[in-house]
Fold:
Amino acid sequence: MRTEGEFRALQHGGPHPLDGVLTPSEGEIDDTCWRDPPPADPNADRRVVAHFDADCFYAQVEELRDPNLASRPVAVTQKYLVVTANYAARKAGVGKLVSVAEAKRLCPDAAFVCGEDLTPYREFSKRIRRVLARFGACEKLGLDECWVDLTAEVDRRVEAGDDPRAFVGRVFSAASDAVAAGINPRRPADVRRVEPPEQNPNAKPNDDRRIRTTASPSSTGGGRRRDEDSVSLADDLRRLRVGSAVAAEARDAVLRDANLRCSAGIAHNKFLAKLASGLHKPDDQTSVPRSEAEAAVAPLPTRALAGVGRKTARALADSGFETAADLRGIARGDLERRLGARVGARTHDAAWGVCRERVEAKGPPQAVTCEDSFVASSEENDWGVVERVVRKLAPDLIARIDEERDDALTENAFGLIHTRAPETLRVQWRLAGRERATGSASAGMPEGAMFDGGYKYGCANGGRERREREENRRAREKDLVEGAMEVLRANLPPRFRLTKLNLGATGFTEVIAASRFSLEGPWSGYDFSSSERRIRLFRQLASAEMMGDKELAHEIRRDLTIVSKSMTRKKEEQARGVAKREWRDAREGGIEAGSVSRGRFLDDADDGATIPGGSRRRGEGA
Structure:
């Protein structure tokens, strides 16, 4: 059997880049290790960023949906775990990821609400972001978290002479606050506030050689002096005070318009803002002056730093570097060589409390997914279990597709209604066994699963009855189930026992969903979505052929084939329907079969009528 070193040499061409090169000796760490701080960034130094975190978000939403829960301990569950609990339940010891059985033992009076349907949480999350977007660029981090760039609003207020004399909320100070890793190993950046060591008689003494929480280049004399930075300390504090006032106004707006309480962190970068938002929960906010950044980050474990994953954190720990303060003893260039230029630079920045990332408002997602994990069947190749899980996931994925479609609805000057639709159905799975092997496969999204016939657009078939809507929805789910099962039958291994399935709709692109003119007459039944998609593919194919990209051209031709087959099936079904109606009319009215028009658009169309945009329908007069 190969040793670990032999395996790494075979797979990666050598030992782990951190092995044996980062271990500090007793004489290697001294004050000179503080002389390599990150380079200054004038643009980043002037930013004011806030991180907002809704307090026990799922529980708050459930209390709003059922006011009777507001006065009770509430625990929101998914399968057999508690995913969040309100503060009344937390006082009884019910925390995140506690089993439902244990939570009931700890707090028998709690109300347990199933939170497996994320639809209401997504809706409230959108409400929060719509409110916060008034104050600056809003970047989503999760359903209950987001960053907001307050820089432009702060600049405006400072230019207008705004100069508050005090911070709104709390201010981090190394003299009175200390930061420690959170209790959730899956979210290492969710830190918590603890009493400083000198105020906590039960705290373990720090290893002075490794942990330095108050030293800085300005205090030790090494490195760049802070008064050489692009922003003076006085100006920095003023801007942060203004930012704290803006953040408080934003929190009040969320409470007023979305009826949700949230906490916030305010700092000059995203990393520190997120760190600060959890220090004084619930319903409070904390500001971190730039002069306190190094002290705030110093005691954090390396795993809590941006860019440091489990394996890198483990390798750093094996080399004796467990905290951000320890990492400051490594030269920036050395980290870049060992971890790669991008990861090394980002890790070095984070160890000093620096983050250069901008807050960027992300566009709509390119993929939506739904997933279920379960105990593996006792029998191999149990397709019955597979189909039951797919049928369970299909309605959720249809709902997600509809949400994205409705959020993207726009109408152009020609009356065409644009939206977004997925091009690809992706299926992922996990197999039972020690290896827990995973796999995935994709296929074209079934056309029937994408749209509901138009009733939600207020255009084609806008007045259909509830029963017809339900029938249409079931038909969409059936198409999706059939498409997913076809992918699984073609790609699962010959022998399998599944423990997880994931259905996803990916590759969202803009499509024409309907026309305002499609209420009746010549526009009824016109397949805007498929035709527009086909035109776009033809354009992409022409570009690929001009560039000589044969592989891309092949992929586009394959997609064209899928779309064309789908359109052909629809046309054949419509033709059969027309033929049946003609034959029925002929029998009832004595008219010769075939004498009525066979053109789908000819019955009510005026000669010369054109599709918005200028093109003529096939079969019409010039």
